[in-house]
C-alpha cells in the first residue's frame, strides 16, 4: 500500500475530530472521504498532509513512518476548495511555482506547464492573469499546479464545492478522467456523494470522526452499512424488504425507488407534485403511509399505479 493510516486519532482539547481511523490508499488509486460537515474529513486530510499532528496513530508511505517528515518533504500535492492561487502571477507562473522551487530549468518547466495546461483543458491560457479566470478555470489551474511536481499523492479538500452545480458536475467528470490519465494516487475529501462516486475507485464514509464503511462506489451505494449512512446516501424511507419484493429484513428507499407506471403492482394517491430539473417528483400515499415517487405529470388527488426501480432501493445494515 502506498498510503497507510493506522489507528489515527486527532484531538483538539476535548473534541475528538478523528477517532481511530485506519485506511489505506493503493498506488494509482483514487479514494474519496465522504461524510457530512464536521465529521472530521478535513482534519484527517490535514493530518496526512502533515499540517496536523495525530494525537495517536501512524501515517506511513510505503511502510515508512511520516511522523518526522515536514509538509514540504512529503511530496504530496494539495488542492483546497478555493484554489489559493497566487493572484499576482499568471496561469503559467502559478503552475510552474513548485517546479521553480525545485530548481527545474526553464525549458523543462515550460514544457511541463504546457502539457499540464493541456491535461486540464486550459491550452492557450498560460499568459492569462488568474484573477481573470472563472472559478472553474481557477480550480483547473490549482490542480495543474499541484500535479506539476509529480506528487506521489494528491490530496484534494472539497476541490469543487465553491463552484455552481452544473460546473461542479462537469468538472467532477473531467477530474475523474484526468486523475486516471495522470495515473494519480489521490485522496479526495467531499460531502457530496455524487462527486465521491464519480471520482473514486473506493469510497470511505466518515461519521463523527470514524470511518464507518469503505468499499467500491456501487457496493456502498447499494448496501450502506447502517440507517445513518443510508440516510446520508439519499434514503428517505425504511421498510421491510417484502415491500419491494425482496427477502430482506430492511431496505432503504430513495426518491427514485417508486415510479409511476401503468403496469406497476402498487396503487397510491398523489399528495404533492414538485418539478425538478429533469423529472417530476411526487409524494404518494400508499396504504396509509407517504412515499416519494418519480412521475410523469399527474394531478394531486390522482390514483396512480407504481412500479419499483431497484436502483433506488438500498440494502441496509
Ligand atoms: N483547529 C481546530 N480546533 C478545534 N476544533 C477543531 C479544529 N479543526 C476542526 N475542529 C473540530 O473538529 C471536528 C471535525 O472538523 P473537520 O473540519 O475535520 O470536519 P469536516 O468533516 O472536514 O467538516 P467540513 O466539511 O465542515 O469542513 C469539528 O467538530 C470541528 O469543529
Automatic annotation (TrEMBL):
It is an enzyme of class 7 (translocase). Its EC number is 7.6.2.9. Pfam families: ABC_tran. Keywords: ATP-binding, Cell membrane, Ion transport, Iron, Iron transport, Membrane, Nucleotide-binding, Transport. Residues 3-233 form the ABC transporter domain. GO terms for molecular function: ABC-type ferric iron transporter activity; ABC-type quaternary ammonium compound transporting activity; ATP binding; ATP hydrolysis activity. CDD domains: ABC_Carb_Solutes_like (cd03259). PROSITE patterns: ABC_TRANSPORTER_1 (PS00211), ABC_TRANSPORTER_2 (PS50893). GO terms for cellular component: membrane. This is ABC-type quaternary amine transporter. The lineage of its organism: Bacteria, Bacillati, Actinomycetota, Actinomycetes, Pseudonocardiales.
Amino acid at each position: 500500500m502506498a498510503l497507510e493510516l493506522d489507528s489515527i486519532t486527532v484531538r483538539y482539547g476535548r473534541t475528538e475530530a478523528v477517532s481511530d481511523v485506519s485506511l489505506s490508499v493503493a498506488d494509482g488509486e483514487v479514494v474519496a472521504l465522504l461524510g457530512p460537515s464536521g465529521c472530521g474529513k478535513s482534519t484527517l486530510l490535514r493530518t496526512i498532509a502533515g499540517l496536523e499532528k495525530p494525537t495517536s496513530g501512524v501515517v506511513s508511505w510505503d511502510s515508512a513512518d511520516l511522523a518526522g517528515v515536514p509538509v514540504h518533504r512529503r511530496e504530496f500535492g494539495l488542492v483546497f476548495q478555493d484554489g489559493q492561487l497566487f493572484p499576482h502571477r499568471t496561469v503559467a507562473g502559478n503552475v510552474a511555482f513548485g517546479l521553480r522551487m525545485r530548481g527545474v530549468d526553464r525549458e523543462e518547466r515550460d514544457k511541463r506547464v504546457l502539457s499540464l495546461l493541456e491535461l486540464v483543458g486550459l491550452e492557450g491560457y498560460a499568459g492569462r492573469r488568474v484573477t481573470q479566470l472563472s472559478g472553474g478555470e481557477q480550480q483547473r489551474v490549482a490542480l495543474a499546479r499541484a500535479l506539476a511536481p509529480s506528487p506521489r499523492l494528491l490530496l484534494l479538500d472539497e476541490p469543487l464545492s465553491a463552484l455552481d452545480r452544473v460546473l461542479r458536475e462537469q468538472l467532477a467528470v473531467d477530474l475523474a478522467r484526468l486523475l486516471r490519465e495522470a495515473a494519480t494516487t489521490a485522496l479526495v475529501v467531499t460531502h457530496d456523494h455524487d462527486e465521491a462516486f464519480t471520482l473514486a475507485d473506493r469510497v470511505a464514509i466518515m461519521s463523527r470522526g470514524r470511518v464507518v464503511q469503505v468499499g467500491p462506489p456501487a457496493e456502498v451505494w447499494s448496501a450502506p452499512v447502517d440507517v445513518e449512512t443510508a440516510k446520508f446516501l439519499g434514503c428517505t424511507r425504511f421498510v421491510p424488504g417484502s415491500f419491494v419484493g425482496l427477502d430482506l429484513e430492511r431496505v432503504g428507499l430513495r426518491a427514485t425507488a417508486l415510479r409511476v407506471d401503468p403496469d406497476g403492482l402498487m396503487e397510491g394517491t398523489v399528495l404533492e407534485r414538485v418539478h425538478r430539473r429533469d423529472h417530476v417528483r411526487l409524494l404518494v400515499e400508499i396504504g396509509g403511509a407517504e412515499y416519494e415517487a418519480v412521475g410523469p405529470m399527474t394531478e394531486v388527488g390522482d390514483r396512480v399505479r407504481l412500479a419499483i426501480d431497484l436502483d433506488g432501493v438500498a440494502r441496509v445494515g
